[in-house]
Every structure is written in structure tokens, then in C-alpha cells.
Design goal:
The protein has three helices and five strands. By secondary structure, it is α+β, with helices and mostly antiparallel strands. Helix 2 runs antiparallel to helix 3.
Amino acid sequence: MATTIDSSYLLTSTQNQPKKTGSSSLGKDDFLKILMTQLQNQDPLNPLQDKDFIAQMATFSTLEQMTNLGATMDKFVKQNQLLEASALIGKTVTYQNDQQQEQSARIKSVSVKDGNVLYQLDDADKTTVAAAQITKIE
């Protein structure tokens, strides 16, 4: 029984595809595509050595662990930002408003939006200021 090779994995097929824009780094999916292409196009009389295959799988495992670690660190940093900012609740801050005037108010609550820490003040206007606007903490 003859095994056929999927033509989408052949080198000529992949060279003719338009290059995708975006990230210039390889991800897990890209690594698996390269590995599958290599396995499908290997010489049947000289197959991939066991040690080479194990080394590639170890590289893939390391890549996956690093990706997961990066995602976990991102979550940790966001939670840590909120935790650190919450220490200011109840403190009086001096900040610059939109007209570049200094005003003071007590911090009522803290939130994170799009990676930026925002402080809601306990004033009549329920003003929200970013950390960069605060000039003094009492």
C-alpha cells in the first residue's frame, strides 16, 4: 500500500503562499507545522534519528512551557498592579486636572482598564484620574 504525501506540506506549496503579516516570532502552531512537514518529507531510506526527534519534542515542550509561563506572568502583573494600587484607597492625593490645575481629593476606588490603573476620587464629580496625573499622596 503506497502512502501519499499531502501536497500542502511540500516545500513548493509553502513557498508560493503569501507571507502573513504580524508577529515575526514562531509560535506553537508554527513549530508543529514545521515538524509535520519535516516528518512527511523525510527520506524513507534515512528516516529521522530517534535522538533528533526527541530533541525536537523537547524544544516544543520548552516552547509550550515558556508560552504558558508568559501568560501566567501577564496575569500576575495585572493582579499585582491592582493590589498595589488598592493600598491608596482612603488616601488623599493631589493631581493635575485637564486644565493643568492642581486639585486634591480622597481616593474612593481603584480599577484597571486596558492595562492602566485608574483611581476614582471621592469628590462631587466622581473624577477618575490615571496614575500619571497624581503628583502627591498624603
